[in-house]
Amino acid sequence: MKGIHWIGLVSVLGVVGCGGSGGGANDNAPLVVFESTRDSAQSQIYSIKADGHGLKRLTNTPLANALPRLDRQGDKIVFVSSRDNTDEIYIMNVDGSDQTRLTHLTGQSYFPSFSPDASHIVFDYIAAPGVDDVYTMNADGSNPTPLTSDGKSIGPRYSPDGTHIVFSTTRSGHSEIWTMNADGSNQTQLTHDNDSAFYPVYSIDGTKIFFESSRDGTLNIFSMNSDGTSETNLTHSSFQEGSPCPSPDGKSIIFNSSESSSTIGLYMISVDGSNRKKIYESGAVESDPSFAGP
Length: 294
Prior knowledge:
By secondary structure, the protein is mostly beta strands. The protein has a single domain, classed as Neuraminidase (6 Propeller). Helix content is 0%, strand content 44%. It is globular.
């Protein structure tokens, strides 16, 4: 995998509940899904409330399940698994039930994400090692269609209105953030920093894009306007921090951080970078958190 993501995949067999964090849970706290190695060397998918309560294990397999993404409605999770000895995209209900394989391509598939109406899934298809392109397909896995053809594009996400897709690509020589129409037309470069910029995601209202970049020496969370202007470092951290995802109310961003040097945990900040707080950390690796939406 790329960036600071982990995967190592194969078979989803059941749902195992895990103990929460004790009392004081907020029933209105939004749900987060993420991958973790807390219970095994291979990552599994979990859900937890954004207040750190209600931890639940959703997959339980010999090898890993990773890169979970909730749909906007909070009903379905799309994720990556290798239960059939190849990395493929699967879908399941938010409680972990009804796990179903969607992709049946000759290569490997990563970084799936729903369209706002959950009718389509955009993803990264690897036809051969080092040859990555952005694809889209119907939510039932039918009609996989390439949107890029440079062999260098990864990490796509839809805009909140479904008209655009933001992604990262090395086609200019460095990993930069680009955008395109949802049909693949009008591909436009947004960042021009000659440095690493990865895994962009739109804000809930579509006016901002959050992403990770190492331009200031370590991997941090950045924001910019959706036209690429006003790039801002939000975390200013000496740790490795990535995989940003906005909260459903648009006020916060959840991400993973190596703030504790021996592990990776889940943290949250306000969209202006203030009010940093830890959400969950088990002493293992927690990464790739996702709220419902945008």
